[in-house]
Design brief:
The protein has about 475 residues and is mostly helical. The chain contains 22 helices and two strands. α2 packs across α9 (about 130-150), α6 (about 80-90) packs parallel to α9 (about 130-150) and α21 packs antiparallel against α22. The protein is globular.
Length: about 475
């Protein structure tokens, strides 16, 4: 299959044609989201599932790109419509050099936190179709602004939080973009894959995200546009039967994860916040665990006696996505120091922080399974009402009853959730073991096995209580 896919990459219309198709779909989703306007406060609670645009974006598109990243790397970037938008505006824009603060990675981390704290928790963009459409337009607007100012494909590499997250999860992927023979690159005179004259082509283009194909050894940053493959194939100063050299390669499951590439500080903060977010995503599925999780933010908010949803969203975010995960992360570190470890806190965060990634990915994958399966019953009502307003009203009036999944479906889902989380914990244990082997192994390093034990148990115990014992 990979052989034929790589052959397809050399064609004029692939994968750029997929980007134009997804651009049309993107525009349609925005339009459908704007169709769902209602002054009735009860209706938006239902519109999150009855509006076709909102349902596709949050219950299928987003979960599916998580699934694809874990399996195939940043393959969503291959068909993402925002990439061609920002590339086009970079072509006609000012092409300024990127400042150091933009290259640091902090812009992505802050951008993600703004979306999570203000967008999702503050105004619930995932529940209101109109807000969803405004959010999608905001992403496009930011990509246009960044593309118009800075050189090459700055948005995808240094601004887009979706790509950042997919880059982390793609460490588990079976596939990666690599060169077949590094000696071909070493002996290449034209270097078409990084030539400036091809940087702003929309199809046959050199790399726009600051990569040299021969040096790619992980999936973190390559957006799989196949531009380097096309230039390597087309722009040859001397014909070489071994070209094109870049290709999609089967690198083996979790190959990049086991390379133990340490986190940067901006990545650590990003991973920390996501590690708290996935706890909320899973625990919020069950009313009992959700009540427990929200006890602290609700108590803090009630003590302040302020009636403001935006403020509550920010307070809840600070507690759930920073303070609670930070406390969890610190447990193995504190115990390791008590038993004699000498590792610095910063080194612990950056080195052992990667052990959280497979459990985070497993939790995100579990949430994807839950969303995709639980929202299926809504589709039977979408053919007559894509805006979702009429359907939402009928659900409120109890003229429509949304059927629950069958016991067999729930049983299969429970098995999947359990297996996925066990797999994530197992991978985390293997990561800790390999990191310990690289460090000066002593009794204190065994404390770091608390990472998969403590963090993994947060999900496993909840799933056990909710799906099997409840």
């Amino acid at each position: 299959m990979i052989k034929y896919l790589n052959k397809l990459f050399t064609s004029l219309y692939f994968p750029v044609s997929l980007k134009y198709i997804s651009l049309v779909a993107y525009i349609l989703l925005i339009a459908i989201g704007f169709m769902a306007n209602s002054n009735d406060a009860a209706i938006p609670k239902q519109l999150r599932n009855t509006n076709l645009g909102n349902l596709i974006v949050w219950s299928y598109w987003w979960p599916i790109i998580i699934i694809l990243a874990i399996s195939f790397g940043r393959i969503w970037c291959m068909i993402c419509p925002v990439e061609i938008i920002t590339t086009f505006f970079a072509k006609i824009g000012m092409r300024k050099k990127r400042p150091k603060w933009l290259l640091s990675g902090w812009v992505i981390t802050v951008f993600y936190m703004v979306i999570l704290f203000f967008g999702i928790q503050g105004i619930a963009i995932h529940r209101n179709p109109t807000f969803m459409s405004l959010y999608l337009l905001t992403i496009v607007g930011v990509s246009i602004l960044v593309g118009s100012i800075y050189e090459k494909n700055t948005f995808c590499r240094y601004v887009c939080p979706v790509g950042y997250l997919l880059g982390l999860y793609s460490r588990l992927s079976f596939f990666g973009w690599r060169v077949k023979d590094s000696s071909v690159c070493n002996n290449c005179k034209d270097k078409s894959c990084i030539q400036k004259e091809y940087q702003y082509n929309l199809n046959y283009k050199s790399c726009g995200v600051d990569l040299y194909p021969a040096n790619i050894n992980d999936n973190s940053d390559c957006i799989l546009c196949a531009g380097c493959l096309k230039t390597c194939d087309k722009y040859q100063s001397e014909q070489n039967i071994k070209r094109p050299n870049p290709q999609l390669t089967n690198i083996g499951f979790a190959n990049d994860l086991f390379k133990l590439k340490t986190l940067k500080m901006a990545e650590f903060v990003f991973v920390l916040v996501v590690s708290g977010f996935v706890i909320y995503e899973i625990w919020a599925e069950w009313s009992v665990s959700k009540k427990l999780l929200l006890y602290i933010p609700n108590t803090v908010y009630d003590s302040l006696s302020i009636n403001n949803n935006m403020l509550f969203g920010i307070i809840k975010s600070l507690i759930l996505f920073i303070l609670i995960p930070l406390a969890i992360w610190l447990i193995p570190f504190v115990i390791s120091r008590i038993v004699g470890a000498s590792i610095k806190l910063k080194d612990y965060f950056l080195v052992y922080g990667i052990a959280f990634i497979p459990i985070m990915a497993a939790a995100h994958l579990s949430k994807a399974v839950l969303k995709v399966t639980s929202r299926i019953p809504y589709f039977e009502h979408l053919s007559d009402d894509i805006s979702g307003i009429s359907t939402a009203q009928k659900i409120i009036d109890k003229e429509i009853v949304i059927h629950q999944n069958s016991p067999l479906t729930n049983f299969v889902v429970s098995l999947l959730l359990s297996a996925i989380m066990i797999g994530g914990i197992w991978l985390s244990i293997k990561v800790v073991k390999r990191i310990n082997q690289k460090q000066n192994t002593n009794a204190a390093t065994f404390s770091y096995y608390l990472i998969p034990i403590v963090y993994g148990s947060i999900f496993m115990l909840m799933i056990l209580a909710w799906r099997w014992l409840n």
